[in-house]
Design brief:
Immunoglobulin-like; alpha+beta; single chain; 11 strands; five-stranded antiparallel beta sheet; 26% helix; elongated
Length: 202
């Protein structure tokens, strides 16, 4: 039987070429999927990293804490001088919350002009340095200072719905920014308050 070796070799070559092209196409599709997945993972990782960084760095610092004394020698007002932490992005205090946990219960206050008493004026915020607008208080520099004021017996309008703090009473205050970064401080009223005291360091 007559056989054309050149023809057979050509048929084998075409089959091999088809298989090769199919393998290239499969590899290209797989590579595309991997590249797309890697891109998505990178984007998610960047977003997660940025969010985690903000939760750590975009926080407030408490410069000082004091309490105003009433005629019964009890603390009826809490004052916090606040600043932004080094490395923090600008912090909008209207997007910040203050949580009070003490012997009289637990309360969460939003430091927001619309939610405080005074008809649109933010009664919680008193400007000290570097911040121009009391209704839109935004800390943009580490030298900026504001004072946050909470009436302890404010009936929930401009402070806590608590009784004034007695000598030796303790509470925890947690400030949380819009980024989710928290700053916590422990407060203890002095065990002895005299009639001469108008305010005390806490």
């Amino acid at each position: 039987m007559f056989t054309n070796d050149d023809t057979e070799r050509g048929q084998v070559g075409i089959g091999t070429l088809i298989v090769f092209i199919a393998m290239v196409l499969v590899a290209a599709i797989a590579a595309g999927v991997l590249i797309n997945t890697a891109g998505m993972l990178q984007t998610q990782a960047e977003a997660t990293g940025e969010e985690s960084t903000q939760q750590v760095s975009d926080r407030l610092e408490i410069v000082s804490t004091s309490g105003e004394i009433d005629e019964s020698n009890e603390v009826n007002q809490l004052k916090f001088v606040m600043a932004m932490a080094p490395g923090s992005d600008p912090i909008d205090l209207n997007q910040t919350t203050a949580q009070f946990i003490g012997e009289q219960g637990e309360e969460m206050k939003a430091i927001n002009a619309d939610e405080s008493g005074g008809g649109g004026t933010n009664d919680y915020v008193e400007l000290i340095q570097g911040v121009d607008d009391e209704d839109e208080p935004v800390l943009t520099d580490t030298s900026d200072r504001v004072e946050l004021i909470f009436d302890v017996d404010g009936d929930g309008e401009n402070g806590l719905d608590w009784d004034p703090l007695e000598e030796g009473e303790q509470l925890t205050v947690i400030f949380t920014t819009d980024a989710g970064a928290s700053t916590q401080t422990e407060i203890r009223v002095p065990t002895t308050i005299t009639d001469e005291d108008e305010s005390v360091r806490l």
